[in-house]
Design goal:
Largest sheet: 10 strands, mixed
Order of helices and strands: EHEHEHEEHEEEHEHEHHHHEE
Helix content: 40-55%
Distance between the termini: 62 Å
CATH class of the largest domain: Alpha Beta
CATH architecture of the largest domain: Alpha-Beta Complex
Mean pLDDT: 93
Shape: globular
CATH topology of the largest domain: Spore Coat Polysaccharide Biosynthesis Protein SpsA, Chain A
């Protein structure tokens, strides 16, 4: 029987969490699945766990490749997927038993190209923001993109969504970069005529200290600005009426990166080097950012400091300065 849904799981050194992740996928109420495990050069016991699960479940296909990063693993998964629909699960997370059945039903009942469910966060053994209410909304492409940049209903993450296969036509994840969700999600939405969202939780995202985005400031964070250049150019061309939402998300993204530098980089020279890179990106777009009424004077002040190549934080008692070249 041809699988309806292909679930792509990049795997890299997650032996502690992998069994729970794979069990939650194998035990889905939706049975017509193809489960693609992309072992991206793991050096722990993850490959063995994948092999053992594949022995027990014929729907599992294990693909091994040299360590190339999550984007390359996802690209491999999409290339090998045979399902009409495509979903993603990160190998340190887990999903509720009816997640993919619900997402497919939502998609079919609402004639949509992308369906989205709510997600909860797990800190240690505690799961927060779990929602059982099934509040459903359908959105046009423009409305869905607006909400994507607002970030209130859903965000750029791939893993709480189900996509029709055609959404990936001529789209690949940027290899060698992090924040690949940011670079690709809006492109997938541009391939969708209608998007449906439910508030009901289906996905459990695990916050862990070893994560690439929660460990010491990762220099790859600045790679996200390559995606922002692409977003700004594309959305301004296709949906200029959405640029206020785009600029707002760009501002908060930049302020968050500055705050991360303040909190996670103790070396003054390195902190200033990373701040210089962020300031350069903000200054590149500063003259195009409209006077957004919803910005408080504090946020406007922070943004102006970044534009003027310095940043004073009274809370951290630190000053960031750009390296002027």
């Amino acid at each position: 029987m041809k699988p309806t849904i292909s679930i792509i799981v990049p795997v890299y050194n997650v032996e502690t969490y992998l069994e729970e992740c794979l069990s939650s996928i194998c035990n889905q109420t939706k049975k017509e699945l193809e489960i693609l495990l992309i072992n991206d050069g793991s050096t722990d016991n993850s490959p063995t766990i994948c092999k053992e699960f594949a022995k027990e479940d014929s729907r599992i296909i294990v693909i091994h490749q040299d360590s190339q990063g999550v984007s390359a693993a996802r690209n491999t998964g999409v290339q090998h997927a045979t399902g009409e629909l495509i979903g993603f699960v990160d190998s340190d997370d887990w999903i509720l038993p009816d997640m993919f059945e619900n997402l497919q039903n939502l998609m079919e009942d609402n004639d949509s190209d992308i369906s989205v469910c709510g997600y909860a966060r797990q800190f240690g053994d505690e799961v927060t923001h779990f929602r059982e209410k099934n509040h459903i909304i359908t959105l046009s492409q423009e409305e869905a993109l607006r909400e994507l940049f607002r970030g209130k209903i859903y965000r750029f993450a791939l893993w709480n969504k189900l996509y029709r296969r055609h959404c990936f036509d001529n789209i690949t994840f940027p290899e060698g970069r992090i924040h690949e969700d940011l670079a690709v999600s809006y492109q997938l939405f541009l391939k969708a005529d209608r998007i449906v969202n439910t508030s009901k939780t289906g996905y459990i995202y695990r916050n862990r200290e070893q994560s690439i985005l929660t460990e010491k400031f990762h220099k790859g964070r600045i790679d996200s600005y390559k995606a922002w250049d692409e977003i700004i150019h594309t959305i301004n061309d296709v949906y200029p009426q959405l640029m206020e939402e785009v600029w707002m998300r760009f501002i908060w993204w930049s302020l968050d990166n500055v705050q991360t530098i303040l909190g996670q980089i103790s070396d003054k020279q390195e902190a200033n080097e990373q701040f210089t890179r962020i300031s350069r990106e903000v200054r590149k777009h500063f003259h195009n950012i409209p006077k957004l009424k919803q910005l408080s004077w504090k946020v406007k002040l922070k943004l102006r400091m970044i534009n003027y190549q310095y940043y004073i934080s009274a809370k951290e008692k630190k000053i960031l300065k750009c390296h002027i070249s």
